[in-house]
């Protein structure tokens, strides 16, 4: 970063924004503001070039056809890959997560190349769609409390050797491979199947991204009362479905 402000890029709200995933951008923005970190949010539609000078890029979920269109445009644009090469942080959800991998199966049933930023490959699950509340334990090296989220996907994501599972599910399906893994990450690129929006249920993930972007070890505490109440409610729902 050239100064102390944070540049947040919300990628393709017109294609990748199902299940309120835009809430992730709102939460990151708000958590930065609460720490008096100046933050600029740029929403980049799919007919616009992706800026390469952002600090944090967020991608949401999408239906199958918009997902293919988004992948085509992101590959052609190349901006997210250039930003990551410059050290940017990327956090992606569901369709966005699949797009960051090497390949996924598109709406036409064909393999569609992704951006290759995560060492994962997604296929279409043969079984039932993965739908429901999830409770998972995030990789301990990230130092975060349990992950709560909502999943709704047909895709199954297989991790290669350089991708670490983001979490291990206690309840729910996550990557859908049957090995209990959920999501993936490497140094600065994260993917998850969790909607919610996931940052509203797990504000500490937003804080982690801000800390990575600012290269600081800690942030001043903020009032998490509202988030804690939501977490409690949704974790209870996952453990004991209605
Ligand atoms: N179309 C993808 C799947 O079903 C992603 C769905 C989503 O983003 N909710 O796997």
Terminal-residue CA separation:
46 Å
In DSSP terms (H or I, runs of 4 or more residues), the helix count works out at 7
Alpha-carbon Rg, integer = 17 Å
Structure summary, number of beta strands: 13
Which stretches are poorly predicted, pLDDT < 50 over at least 5 residues? Answer: none
Structural class: alpha/beta
Largest sheet: 9 strands, mixed
User: What small molecules does the structure contain?
Assistant: glutamine
CATH class category name? Alpha Beta
Adjacency order of strands in the biggest sheet: 2-1-3-4-13-12-11-8-9
The count of domains is 1
CATH topology: Rossmann fold
CATH architecture classification name:
3-Layer(aba) Sandwich
**Mean of pLDDT:** 96
Beta strand %: 25-35%
Shape by Cα distribution: globular
The percentage helix is 25-40%
Give the CATH H-level superfamily: Class I glutamine amidotransferase (GATase) domain
Organism: Actinacidiphila reveromycinica
Subunit structure: Forms a heterodimer with MurT.
Pfam families: GATase_3
InterPro entries: Class_I_gatase-like, CobQ_GATase1, GATase_3, Lipid_II_synth_GatD
